[in-house]
Design goal:
40% strand, five-stranded antiparallel β-sheet, 149 residues, elongated, Aldehyde Oxidoreductase, domain 3, 28% helix
């Protein structure tokens, strides 16, 4: 079972990503479905703005390299067997999936912990950039927000 890290401009099939990770030694796969939400709270002002759609861009070669590095780090920190990360680029409408992270492990506790760690680190370190578009403007969002999903 090998890890995989992908960027795509196509809609992500969440179940297909999760089912790619079913090692025989594992008893659980935890899958995060991160998707575009309608309302975003500004960290600085506390103002809640209604999002019309998102646009994701990436420095693709480095993003894929960093995603692979995160999977390797997660496997060394947690008792997990396989990791798949797929992130969508381009325009996403509200409700569309932007990122799927699947983690297979012999036991669910490690899979949950690794999945949570992976999304935090992905947002903090991987060069994928999110623009939120509102009726009255747009803003590039920083990736390290605790409540971004």
């Amino acid at each position: 079972m090998s890890d995989f890290n992908e960027l795509t401009t196509e809609p992500i099939d969440i179940a297909a990503v999760a089912r790619r990770l079913v090692p025989p030694e594992c008893g659980a796969t935890v899958t995060l479905d991160g998707y575009a939400r309608r309302f975003t709270k500004d960290k600085a002002t506390g103002e809640v703005r209604e999002t019309e759609y998102l646009v994701y861009e990436a420095y693709e070669p480095m993003a894929l390299k960093e995603m692979a590095k995160l999977a390797s780090q997660a496997k060394s920190q947690f008792e997990v067997s396989a990791i798949g990360i797929v992130h969508r680029l381009g325009r996403l409408e509200i409700g569309e999936t932007s990122v799927v992270i699947s983690v297979a492990a012999p036991h669910r506790k490690a899979a949950f912990a690794a999945c949570e760690w992976l999304i935090k680190e992905l947002k903090r370190t991987v060069p994928i950039f999110k623009k939120e578009v509102y009726a009255d403007g747009e803003a590039w969002s920083e990736g390290d927000s605790e409540d971004s999903f």
